[in-house]
Amino acid sequence: MKKPAFARISRVKVAIFFIAFGCVASSGAQNSGPTVSLVPVASGLANPWALAFLPDGQFLVTERPGRMRVVSATGQVGPALAGVPTVAVGGQGGLLDVVTDADFARNRRIYFCFSEPAASGAGNSTAVARATLAVDARSLQDVRVLFSQRPKVESALHFGCRIVQAPDGNLFVALGERYHRKDDAQKLDNHHGKVIRITPDGGVPPGNPFASQPGALAEIWSYGHRNPQGATIGPDGKLWMHEHGPQGGDEINLPQPGRNYGWPVVTFGENYGGGKIGEGTAKAGMEPPLHQWTPSIAPSGMAFLTSPRYGMAWQGSLMVGSLKFGTLHRLELSGGRVQREERLLQGNGERIRDVRQGPDGLIYMVTDSPQGRLLRLQPD
Length: 380
Prior knowledge:
- The protein is 1% helix and 41% strand.
- The protein is built from one helix and 25 strands.
């Protein structure tokens, strides 16, 4: 594939929004943060879904059609890695998230998720696998499926799947409810619409809330989720995630063990074509979102900006991509609440699929298209 030039494109347009009374409204205020530019790192990626960082400035990128590639520090896109398991590609399904192990420098271990076809007959589900990236970075070795979402169903929608490794080494995995099976999100006998917690070997770690409850699946951490598309560990050490709502009600949640996050009983969204879903926007025993977007932005990718590379005004911000608008949302947090929201990259025109902070402290993104790009947000 053609190696892109490191060219700086037009400066990012910025609009600032403030949070008031649970709504987002334009303030008309001037941007007090840094001036930033969008710098292309690599192009020609087929619907890239996630990126992870390798030593020496390299990147590991998944493509939804079922390929994983290494991108060099200078933007050269490498060949598809050998060893990726069979992927059920179609609709929203394919090769999805990827993260490197906290001890990657020693063990070269990665974790990734994909839509896994049934061993026989129809159906698929989200699966999580572990592998070792070969020393020559041309193949995956010792590939092992750690977890398969149950049950498998015939659907090409709402696979979800973001993987986060907690400080204790265990893995959180956010799973979609497969769309047509939305009522499953309220039941504990399946993995649809759940956040699960597993060990790096695929076992059930101590402390999972339903491990000893009859009829419940031991991997479940929280439930009542719809279609998670972003997750990260915050500076507070807690799991943060967001999920798509239907025509409104995209949510940011902080999944706590054993808690119910409401879908589809409560939501700020509505049925496609109009019409109420469930019982309203709140109900006793169901956790309200930390923040919600109505209308939907179709959030994807999520990272805390912990570095000072963009100045003190941005440090500590939560960065969230938008598939619908191609914007990057910077959320300022205080007292456990979103105090201000700033929309970056307006007019960019590219669906942002993943957002990560790199080892250099800068924000990197991939864009979801047949000619997707790996981009860097560069402070001027």
